[in-house]
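Suppose you are handed only these lines of text.
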Amino acid sequence: MRKKIVIGNWKMNKMRSDAIETVKELYAAVGDPSEVEYGVCPPFLYLSELVRENTVGIGAQDVFWKDSGAFTGFTSPAMLKDLGVKYAIIGHSERRGRFGKLEVPESTIGSFAETDETVNLKLKACLAHGLIPIVCVGETLAEREAGKTDSVIGGQISGALAGLSDAELDTLVIAYEPVWAIGTGKVCDAAEANRVCAMIRSCLPASLRGSIRIQYGGSVNPANARELFSQSDIDGGLVGGASLKASDFAEVVRAAI
Ligand code: PGA
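From them, the structure of the protein bound to 2-phosphoglycolic acid can be written out as follows.
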């Protein structure tokens, strides 16, 4: 039996006091249910303080792959682990320059330069340091309309997992996030999301197919979470907008119970 996992991705939102307050409220509302694992990924600046709250699981929204060195502006998996951070999101579509809703000039997309190769390096680094990696995959609307959903995602999965042994991958979490559903309010039909999650499962090494958790992400909210999370191959969610308000996110987490 896979334990469901629901993670909030706050992206670049919230001031410090609101971040602390939201975590306190969330924990007061949800507590420590045995049926579901949950947490939030705040902006990097608040990681240390939120870890110290010692309530909900705390994750980073990205990570670099080297332990230390001349890499201005990056954060290493060793540093995150040392702080008590539990999860790291890797390869979110926004970091790949694949936006559901484009809010930056198209000419700046090159600043969001994640590739399958950097995802693979980051995944290896997270696993080596005992961070639980949440690897994001998903197709754009144009790819879906061109019938390329499964091949695009298959390529992202094989790129991410290259060179890793089955034993190394046992804590891996995958998030299926159709790019067109992220931040758009257009949720993927639950049966179709389940079909893609099952397809992703079939791409995994046979020994891990039954145990690796696959989340759905993209406009999850309190109204649609239960239907999504009750699908056979969906093991929880990666939640953006609806994770910002503690009462909404608490409902989404409880929908996985
Ligand atoms: P959303 O974002 O729930 O706001 O659509 C999901 C995500 O990007 O992880």
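What can we learn from it? The pocket of 2-phosphoglycolic acid is lined by residues 9, 177, 182-183, 217-220, 238-242 (CB under 6 Å). The chain has a mean pLDDT of 97.
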